Amino acid sequence: MAPKKHYFTRTQDSRTQELRKKISDTLLSTQTNIDEVEKKVSSFEKRLEEILDRLDDLENRLKKLEELLE
Amino acid sequence: MVVGIAIHSYRGGTGKSTTTANLAVMLALYDKKVATVDLDLTSPGLHVIYQVSQSIMKVTLNDYVFGRAALEDVVIDLTNQLGLPKGKIYFLGASMKPEEIAKLLKEGYSEQFFKEVTRQLGEAYGVDFVIFDTHPGLNEDTLLAVLSSDVSIMMMRMDKQDITGTYVTAQVLRKFNKTSYVVLNMVPPNMAKAVELRSEVSKLLGIPVIGVVPFYPEILQHRSRGVFILKHPKHPYTLRIKEVVEFIINNIG
Ligand SMILES: Nc1ncnc2c1ncn2[C@@H]1O[C@H](COP(=O)(O)OP(=O)(O)O)[C@@H](O)[C@H]1O
Ligand SMILES: [Mg+2]
User: Beta strand pairing status for B209-214 and B179-187?
Assistant: First the structure.
């Protein structure tokens, strides 16, 4: 006998729609302060920029050091 | 226990499908059984990376959702085709017919579907992981996929639009107490060298960064010629994918 195959049976009761409703409600009731988001992201980018500059600086100095040693 | 993982991103083209396929193959190389499900319904792309032609996908996920076909008729076992020495890779493809896509989005998407397909894949194939390659954005359907999975992995590029969108998405996911992780993809090589990158992004988003994957032109060129890490086992990209997989196995499995 071949093993039983697996079918999907959709149930339409409200319980299976619970999460969808919660997502919809949550999205609709979200109050995003876009200025604050912008501020956070901008300061993150500034920090990252500083980190990259430092890394750049370090690499340049390493290169110079190597040249001196050659 | 089967673990459902949703690969998600705020924007398209962040590398969801590429990452899904490569993570799945790496998990298989760790002897795991993995099912990958193409849920980017409006622009499916996983089959391209796996080199599965549409003609082989006679029966799709759409048929399963509407009870027209059994799971066993949808699942394609790619283990041999990919030449995997161990583990298992299964693929569940979605229809590319507009009428089918519309119908599925309108009536078929439910929490019950995600739970059931995950459970049945465990029962029928003994899979350890089900990875859902989702459609990008902060829309209801995608959030349903993300929130119905056990964990979500968000792919993010390091540009302002992506960072802002991911930040907003993270705030929504927090309201649902969703276990989420971030993988940074296509990171400019100079930025990937900064050791602080991981902690800075984690701090901003309030979500752990479990992988930093630089931009490699070879990946772009490799497009639709199979799963990259199989062809380039020593490439630095492969090592970055390996790191993410080790995190998954040790912390999520
Ligand atoms: N780390 C990377 N470096 C270079 N190119 C990448 C990288 N990750 C993905 N890509 C390329 O980016 C493009 C979009 O990737 P894809 O996986 O299709 O994104 P999505 O599924 O999110 O739309 C593809 O051409 C892919 O080869
Ligand atoms: Mg895709």
Answer: parallel
